[in-house]
UniProtKB/TrEMBL annotation:
Domain of life from the UniProt record: Bacteria
Domain Transcription regulator AsnC/Lrp ligand binding: 69-141
UniProt name for this protein: Lrp/AsnC family transcriptional regulator
Length: 164
């Protein structure tokens, strides 16, 4: 498999996963069968891990919120960051989990949930072995996510509408 073409395919899919195999083939100057084979190889190698739509939930009447939770840990002998991450990532509330450098060890992005579920999840995290502390930040408004810029409602004077 041509690495350069594979990287180009990944960039195209990252930008718009709804492109058909034929459209991708045309854009990459490949056959449709070559694109299908490349996607299969990339999936088997766990490089192409999933395809999701970007939903601007802020434009809906859904009142759920998402949170970013900073977690600091105190690892004891014989426990690794990977082991702690394996435990945290098993929770349904976790949308994304990152090992960080700096003031905290992990950053968790929750799925969109009611506030009481976020609160309950933070309480679960705080009671885990090795968790030293948490700091929770509620996402108020998303302007850009995964390269997709979201349009916001304004009042005609380019001011964000806070209530309707």
């Amino acid at each position: 498999m041509n690495k350069e073409k594979a990287h180009e395919l990944l960039r195209l899919l990252e930008r718009d996963a709804s492109l058909s195999n034929q459209t991708l083939a045309d854009m990459l100057s490949l056959s449709k069968d070559e694109v299908v084979e490349m996607k299969t190889v990339l999936k088997d190698a766990n490089i192409l891990s999933g395809i999701q739509a970007m939903v601007n939930w802020d434009a809906t009447d859904n009142e759920y919120a998402s949170a970013m939770i900073e977690i600091t840990v105190n690892l004891h002998k014989g426990v690794s960051y990977q082991q702690v991450a394996d435990v945290i990532s098993q929770y349904d509330e976790v949308e994304a989990l990152y090992l960080m450098s700096g003031a905290y060890d992990y950053l968790v992005l929750t799925k969109r949930l009611p506030m009481h579920r976020i609160s309950g999840f933070v309480n679960k995290l705080a009671t885990l072995d090795h968790v030293q502390g948490t700091a929770t930040h509620i996402v108020m408004q998303r302007y850009k996510d995964h390269g997709t810029q979201f349009k916001t409602k304004t009042d005609g004077r380019n001011r964000l509408v806070i209530s309707q």
